[in-house]
Write a structure and sequence with these properties.
This protein is an alpha+beta fold and about 260 residues long. The chain is about 20% helix and about 30% strand. A hairpin with a 3-residue loop joins β8 and β9.
Length: about 260
């Protein structure tokens, strides 16, 4: 096998390398490769190809949309490079750009798969809940300057977790054939500097599901929707029954869960 070929799982020399990745999604057109667009996958694969001295194809735990951030995205690739994990980490971080960094490289069994072996994901949607905008949190939170009924929002979240069809909270162009997901928890908590964190843990999420949940919840907090309307929308299965899609800059992939 030549150096210009992508390394296969079946190559007897192949190592399966897992990456934990942090990125600011503001300057990217999402995770996935797109012609003529700057993507997280593209930036990492280009850097890894230089470090490993062969083309690399990353398999990711879950794609993120344009503008969405990640604290701990997970991906893996196969390589025959005889480099330590630390050398790969330092090499890719020197080349990947300031907005995307690998925070851990681990060698895994050859049959480990970042997507298939994931048992769930944790997303946090962050709102800046104060009248004044922020110079430091712009692009990293959704600024909601109007008073929010936090009690109503907490009560609404408490009724959401369920294993059911979440079609009502899926983007119109969503392509996941399995719209049944297990939303295990949905909570609201305060962070420093008037930031409200909406935390969702589930087996998986449909396209823009968390952003639609966050946008609909804000409508509850603004008294634009009645209490109980989020569950009613979920049970209707109709996207029109749910609320707006919150902007991408408030969304963070916090963690990918593995058994």
């Amino acid at each position: 096998m030549g150096r210009r070929e992508v390394i296969s799982r079946d190559d007897p020399r192949a190592r399966n390398l897992s990456l934990t990745i942090e990125y600011d999604g503001s300057g990217f057109a999402g995770w996935q490769l797109q012609p003529g667009q700057r993507t997280v996958q593209g930036a990492l694969e280009a850097a890894l190809a230089v470090v490993c001295r062969h083309p690399v194809v990353l398999r990711v735990a879950g794609r993120t949309d344009a503008g969405v951030h990640a604290w701990a995205q997970r991906a893996h690739f196969f390589s025959t490079a005889e480099l330590t994990c630390d050398r790969i980490l330092r090499g890719v971080n020197a080349l990947s750009g300031a907005e995307v960094k690998v925070v851990a490289v681990e060698e895994m069994p050859t049959d480990w798969d970042a997507r298939r072996d994931a048992s769930g994901k944790v997303y946090v949607y962050r709102l800046l809940a104060r009248p004044e905008p922020s110079a430091l949190l712009a692009g990293r939170t959704w600024h909601v300057p109007w008073p929010l009924d936090v009690e109503a929002m907490q009560a609404e979240l408490a009724g959401l977790p369920a294993r059911c069809d979440w079609s009502a909270y899926c983007a119109a162009d969503g392509s996941d054939p399995n719209t049944v997901k297990d939303l295990r928890s949905a909570t609201l908590g305060w962070e420093p500097h008037d930031v409200m964190g909406l935390r969702f843990e589930g087996s998986g999420f449909l396209k823009q599901m968390v952003r639609i949940l966050a946008g609909t919840l804000v409508e509850v907090g603004l008294h634009k929707r009645d209490r109980g309307s989020m569950v009613a929308a979920r049970d209707s299965g109709a996207r029109a029954a749910a609320g707006r899609t919150a902007p991408p800059e408030g969304l963070y992939l916090e963690k990918v869960l593995y058994a």
